[in-house]
Amino acid sequence: MPNAHPPTTSSDVIVVGAGAAGLSAARRLADAGLDVRVLEARDRLGGRLHTRHDLAGVPVELGAEFMHTAANPLRPVLRAAGFEERRGVSSHLPSESFRPRLESFLAASCTPEESISVEALVQRHATDAPAAQLLEEAFGAQRGREELRRTSATDAMHELELELADDEFMGEHNFRLPAGWGTVVDHLAQGLHCETGRRVEHIGIEAGGIVVEAVGENGPLQYRAEQLIVTVPLGVLKNGDIQFTPALPAEKSAAIQAMTTLDILKLVFVFDGDVWTFDSPVQQTRPSPSTWWHSTWDGAPRDETVIVGWAVGDEARRMLQEPPEVMTARAAASLSAMLGRPDHPPRTATFHSWGADPFTRGSYSHVPPGAPRDIRDRLAMPTGDRIFWAGEATAAFRSRTVGGAYASGARAAAEVLDARSRLVEAAS
Ligand SMILES: Cc1cc2nc3c(=O)[nH]c(=O)nc-3n(C[C@H](O)[C@H](O)[C@H](O)COP(=O)(O)OP(=O)(O)OC[C@H]3O[C@@H](n4cnc5c(N)ncnc54)[C@H](O)[C@@H]3O)c2cc1C
């Protein structure tokens, strides 16, 4: 914690982190007439929304790419603002009878009592052909093997229940925003007071409010506010990058430590011309990365092809053991071989390791086998009337997604407004 005495800046509410959750929360609080300050460690806004415009003729997403599901909470906001959306690659088109079959499977209480992994659940039904096929359909296209191994079946089945209740299936409708997620970030941040390059290191609750110690490019900074919303990623919380005084309640710390996040390595290759000859936009290969997709499949001009390589968990970490140039060259060679074009190397190659990113430290959150079913609610629970929690990991529905993060910010903002009314009532 910095020991100098930096100048102090005061606001009604501080939001830590300017991703989808932080911007959503700040927007609602500012619209309610509060003086809100967003503190962001990076030199850009958006967090895991990271669009590059310098790599290809179209925007290239190094983080989130798709707006999942027709009922995405962000969709009406973006439609009202005139954003163009394009129906994108569906990671999964469920078969005709999928929903009723899944409904009756869930009704027949397939949700395991004990907390096993999704992989173990799939194995348990391996000899029951219809059930095995159903589970393959529910999880096969959506998750990498490591996710199946490290995700709680109870949580995964609960999510399927929520999806059915909402009359949608996660992999069914994926939309793209041709202008790039970066333009959405700009839209959400419009008129907000956001400070970039502000790495928050310490959050203290004192009589009457919150004191935040941060580090900016010119040294330590101090901020005061009546309430604060933490929206930093789970990996950052798990790593203890932000210290709290007094220490967080044991239940909150336990929730942070009980959840998990898997590394994701996303590679992007840009080729001159149309080099994709497959019927499907997604291909699996060996060696790593094992998944590739044609990111400009859906309607972009074909004078160039943007291809994404995707590696999760152990696979990502294995690839990152090599120097970046070697790893990228190896992946490019594997891709060129898959395309049958060893003579046609990519024009541009880049990657982002979200596990190595110090302001993410992972990709998105998972509930591992053994964790309590309400773990995300525990992570979301306010800490008294002063500290509130948002971010994809706290979202009870659509966690891991931009839509879930956005909804979590709205929920946390509503909690702040409630707490402020309570405090005013108590004081009068
Ligand atoms: C590779 C990848 C692909 C994805 N694909 C999709 C997809 O196609 N569709 C989809 O819906 N979702 C996708 N997601 C998930 C989606 O990106 C996230 O769920 C969502 O963007 C998270 O928003 P957030 O606000 O919770 O967190 P973030 O966007 O991570 O925002 C948190 C912010 O806190 C900041 N921060 C961290 N530490 C500090 C600190 N000490 N002080 C101040 N600020 C700090 C960070 O810099 C960051 O800006 C993907 C994620 C990844 C990594």
Task: Give a written overview of the molecule.
The protein has 428 residues and is of the alpha/beta class. The protein has 3 domains: 8-50 and 181-260 and 369-427, FAD/NAD(P)-binding domain (3-Layer(bba) Sandwich), CATH 3.50.50; 98-172, no CATH class; 264-353, Alpha-Beta Complex (Polyamine Oxidase, Chain A, domain 2). It is 33% helix and 22% strand. It is built from 14 helices and 20 strands. The chain has helices spanning 20-31, 75-80, 98-107, 118-124, 129-139, 145-150, 153-165, 181-189, 234-238, 250-258, 314-320, 324-339, 375-380, 402-427, and strands at 8-16, 36-39, 51-52, 60-61, 67-68, 86-87, 174-176, 193-195, 199-206, 209-216, 219-230, 243-245, 260-261, 264-272, 282-284, 291-294, 304-312, 348-353, 365-366, 387-389. Strands 1, 2, 8, 9, 10, 11, 12 and 20 form an 8-stranded mixed β-sheet that branches. A 5-stranded antiparallel β-sheet has the order 15-16-17-14-18. A hairpin with a 7-residue loop joins strand 3 and strand 4. Helix 1 (20-31) runs parallel beside helix 14 (402-427) and helix 3 crosses helix 5. The longest helix is centred in the last third of the chain and has 26 residues, at 402-427. Flavin-adenine dinucleotide (FAD) is lined by residues 16-22, 39-42, 47-49, 63-66, 68, 199-200, 231-233, 236, 241-242, 264, 266, 354, 359-360, 363-364, 391-392, 400-403, 405.
Please sum up the structure shown.
This protein is α/β, with parallel strands linked by helices. The chain is 33% helix and 22% strand. It is globular.
CATH class of the largest domain: Alpha Beta
Ends: how far apart? 36 Å
Find the count of extended strands (DSSP E, 2+ residues): 20
Bound molecules: flavin-adenine dinucleotide
Write down the overall geometry.
globular
% residues in beta strands: 15-25%
State the domain count: 3
Mean of pLDDT? 89
